[in-house]
Design brief:
The complex is a heterodimer of chains A (141) and B (160). Chain A has three helices and six strands, in the order E-H-H-H-E-E-E-E-E. Chain A is an alpha+beta fold and 141 residues long. In chain A, strands 1, 2, 3, 4, 5 and 6 form a six-stranded antiparallel beta sheet that branches. With 160 residues, chain B is of the alpha+beta class. In chain B, 18% of the residues lie in helices and 31% in strands. Chain B contains three helices and five strands; from the N terminus they run βαααββββ. The longest helix of chain B is centred in the middle third of the chain and has 12 residues. The chains are: A alpha+beta (141), B alpha+beta (160). At the A-B interface, helix 1, helix 3 and strand 2 of A face helix 1, helix 3 and strand 2 of B. Strand 2 of chain A pairs antiparallel with strand 2 of chain B.
């Protein structure tokens, strides 16, 4: 895949929509990799005790998966200058083979100076958005 | 219990030096299912213009969490960590994190407020090399659900 060039990119261009399946095993793996061992992400009993519907995914895992839509498109992840999200709804991950399905789409919202583009992202789980104000600044060639 | 607002503006000492290992980058990339070769293959990273393999854009959360821990663990703050979820997160990269980096992170409490029964703790972590080269600025808000006064927490819109 050839990385997009700033000159060839237009505001409104869509990034390829990607669907991510998140299982309990993925949460355990992410906990170990990130060092975030908050039990709401792996212990159903604990999650319910603190008033959550079930185990929920790390917001940071959802953020990382959404970020892949940007880096897969840009080619070089080092081109991401800035990336931020708000976590607006939890991604509830049931204890089964399928887990939760998160669908992420993105578009070029603005072309800025110095070959920088602003990408806005939308992440959906069970028909509702789970990230708000999700955007990244990416420097293209 | 509401959070101690006198923490606003407080800066915490830098974390212990943490060396970014190439296998830690690979482990993190695997955990987010990202097969990009610049996380694993030095030649691919060099071809992309980097001196060594680089880390995914959200890898810096590892350093930010270590810095946040110093704030959260302070009993005077009054944060009930069992009620905490992540409200928002932003990374501003001054350059990519790469294998071999010797990093430290310093936490700053930027804001504390209560809204709809929840406590909001906004923290910044300045991640630099031991020599002081800026690498990444992390900004995060943690939300302690239902810990502020008055008690009832909105179940809708609970973040992750």
């Amino acid at each position: 895949m050839t990385p997009p060039r700033f000159a060839d990119v237009a505001e409104g261009d869509q990034l390829p929509t990607t669907r991510f399946q998140v299982t309990r095993a993925d949460l355990v793996r992410y906990a170990g990799a990130s060092g975030d061992f908050n039990p709401i992400h792996w212990n159903e009993r604990f999650a319910r005790e603190v008033g959550l519907p079930d185990v929920i995914a790390h917001g940071m895992l959802t953020m990382a998966l959404a970020g892949r839509v940007v880096t897969d498109w840009a080619g070089d992840p080092g081109a991401v200058l800035d990336y931020g999200v708000r976590f607006t709804r939890p991604v509830v991950v049931p204890d089964d083979e399928d887990g939760a399905l998160v669908e992420v789409s993105g578009k070029v919202a603005k072309k800025l100076d110095d070959n920088v583009v602003k990408i806005t992202l939308t992440a959906r789980f069970q028909g509702q958005t789970v990230l708000g104000g999700a955007n990244a600044l990416v420097r293209l060639a | 219990m509401p959070l101690d607002e006198s923490f606003i503006g407080r800066a915490f000492p830098a974390t212990e030096v943490w060396e970014v290992g190439r296998e830690k980058i690979r482990e993190f990339a695997d955990a987010i299912g990202d097969a990009n070769p610049v996380y694993r293959d030095r030649e691919a990273a060099v071809a992309a213009g980097h001196p060594d393999v680089i880390a995914p854009p959200t890898f810096a959360v590892i350093l930010a969490l270590r810095a946040h821990d110093l704030v959260i663990a302070d009993p005077e703050l009054g944060l009930d960590y069992s009620r905490v979820v992540h409200g928002d997160q932003r990374f501003t990269h001054h350059r990519p994190v790469r294998a071999g980096d010797q990093l430290v992170a310093s936490a700053h409490v930027d804001d504390i407020k209560s809204r709809a029964g929840n406590d909001f703790l906004s923290m910044r972590a300045e991640i630099t090399t031991v020599e002081g080269e800026p690498v990444c600025t992390s900004r995060a808000t943690l939300v302690a659900r239902g810990t502020a006064e008055p008690a009832p927490a909105a179940e809708e819109g609970v973040p992750a």
